[in-house]
Design goal:
The protein is α+β, with helices and mostly antiparallel strands and 723 residues long. It has 20 helices and 36 strands. The strands form 10 sheets. The chain has a 6-stranded mixed β-sheet, with helices on both faces. The chain has a 6-stranded antiparallel β-barrel with strand order 9-10-16-13-12-17. α9 packs across α11 and α15 crosses α17. The longest helix has 21 residues. The N and C termini lie far apart (84 Å). Bound molecules: guanosine-5'-triphosphate and magnesium ion.
Length: 723
Amino acid sequence: MTGAVKPAWDPSYVAGTGLHSSDLRGAKKRLIATLSELENRATHSKHIYITISNRNKKPLFDNAHFAPPSAFDLVLLRPLASSRHPIPAMDSTKHVIVGTAGHIDHGKSTLVEALTGTNPDRLEEEKRRGITIDLGFAFLDLEGARLGFVDVPGHERFVRNMLAGVGGIDLVLLVIAADESIKPQTREHFDICRLLGIPRGIIAITKSDLVDADVLGLVRLEIEEFVRGSFLEAAPIIPVSARSGAGLDALKQELLRSAQSVPPRDATRHFRLPIDRSFAMKGFGTVVTGTLVSGAVKVEDEVELYPPQIRVRVRGLHSGGKSVTRAVAGQRTAVNLAGIEREEIERGMVLAPPGIFEPARRLDARVTLLGSARPLKSRARVHFHQGTAEAIAEMVLLDGKELAPGASAIAQLRLEKPVLLLPGDRFILRQFSPVETIGGGVALDVRAARHRRNDPHVAQFLETLERGNREEILAALVAASPHGLSMPQIISRTGWTGGDVRQAAANSIEGKRLRVVSPQPWSIASAKSVADCAAVLRKAIEDFHRANPLLPGIPKQELRGRAGKTSAEIFHAALDDLVKANTVATSGDLVQRAGREIALSDEEARAKELIEKEFERAGLTVPSFVAVLEKLPVESRRAQKILQILLREKVLIKVADDLVFHRAAVARLRETLAKYRKERGERLPIPAFKELTGVTRKYAIPLLEYLDREHVTRRVGDERVIL
Ligand SMILES: Nc1nc2c(ncn2[C@@H]2O[C@H](COP(=O)(O)OP(=O)(O)OP(=O)(O)O)[C@@H](O)[C@H]2O)c(=O)[nH]1
Ligand SMILES: [Mg+2]
């Protein structure tokens, strides 16, 4: 049997279970004995929760994070890893999550145990008090479907725990006791399911053994009335008794039928696992569990813990009582994480792909108030619950001062702490005090700006986010982003995949309403932003030419500065457009109006010629520029510009700040040096240079430094070497 006592994780960790350390020895013996006994009874589809303690009742595995410290930890072990009980391949199985709901003591946990063989109440306190406090889990295999049960507490004080469990479920098993019928938490849980948009469910009338047929008929009528007009209107209503076993088979059949109607979840979406439990397991380290609501995850994946945004590695995965290499949406999943301590993890955090999302602090949402709630004032504080997370939030109505019972409106929720969620995610709102469920809603924009009241643009924008298709939503997002949007920005804002984004953009790009302004990272902008930017650039270029008639063009950097706050991508796209349309031309770093020649007046042209001649004649013994200017027919500001033109045309070469040579003189100097090198060797002392060129020391030094820069010579001590 020892070989079969494998831990829940990768078999390679067998040696590291921690069960070998001396203080655990007694526990190991007992564990093996328990497993042996269980193995004799269990079938391959059974999974077993085992409570392990050592002789001194010291917990071996500590899950004090969610359980009272006195409780022993429960470890989900893979009991039947031996070859006698092959485990069916995962992928052929449909995974469906069933959540219980209903009033305290109505028999939810008992029913789950009757269906699955597993008591979902795992905490010692739960067992002692006979009530469920926190979420419990169990599995049932039914003809190709694996049902993962999330059992929730009915006690009104633990509705927040119920909310952490109900988030990822595919169908609800609404439990109503025959002897009590509909009670407050029957209503509250049912309201929560409606607000979360849970699409289907089954109603079980439990404890049918306690009432006669007449009462049962009455309860059924009450239930039919209760669910009329809701998603449960046509749901099967099945009387059961966990005590006598009556109705259990019928219920299983309905569960299977309902499970089959659950559409398969798309494993290609972004991976998201809202965490509902975390604990440390000796030999493994940190383990988190949750319902995998979207996408898939593999062993060895790098994932990120949001909101703290810590990257961790998936060391092992476990689902439905066995170790797996990959888990997909719709599965209860336990993840063994490397690179993080248990203490750093809380319920409400989410595992998701690294680096692609950003937790939200402020979201715009459609909020609906229950008919039974009191009117809710704008700016009211509420408890916000989404996935397994909760936060205190301020609800600010976009329009109006108060939300009436049963009404719905657009509101901004300002969260007191960040929560990772995406547009389309449903949430629940509970009254601040006394705490009770008052409504819920759906997130529309998780990166919301602060709005002015009654701003019609905001209302229109949010309406598109709420009702539009992806193409329309993308267009609205881009229109609201004058700087354009990159692929990562769009993904983090929408939760779409890269493929979704490209598809949503394709039509608009083809229709020239959107522009791809950068291939990497792929970024888009509205055609209007690019056109607006191009218009600004044209004007800036014209203005520049007018102010600087003698300069060939505006440097790109300067033009960028004049383009206003636009993004670099839009600037380049707009400039490209202008060049392609032959409106402007670029040469090197300069941008000018296309076809523009620097128009010099006759006077200026003459001055230009004069300057050039003067310098050419001077050779290396150049005149001071001031001396040249004095001879010119134009005033000095324009002469300076003409000098700039000559420098740009490389007719003149600037050697030092006040020292300009004609290019012919420099070319001659290079020849002279080459000749000198051939005849007299490469060494060139400064006096030799002065003699060779006939320049004074004042010119010789800057000239030599220029030649050094040009790699014609190199300085060695006091001398130069001709290269
Ligand atoms: N007679 C009878 N008693 C039942 C039946 N199902 C459950 N009970 C009893 O009802 C009590 C409550 O059952 P639980 O399963 O703990 O109820 P629960 O809905 O899980 O309660 P919370 O989780 O605390 O909300 C227990 O004492 C059960 O033994 C049933 O079919 N017949
Ligand atoms: Mg219970």
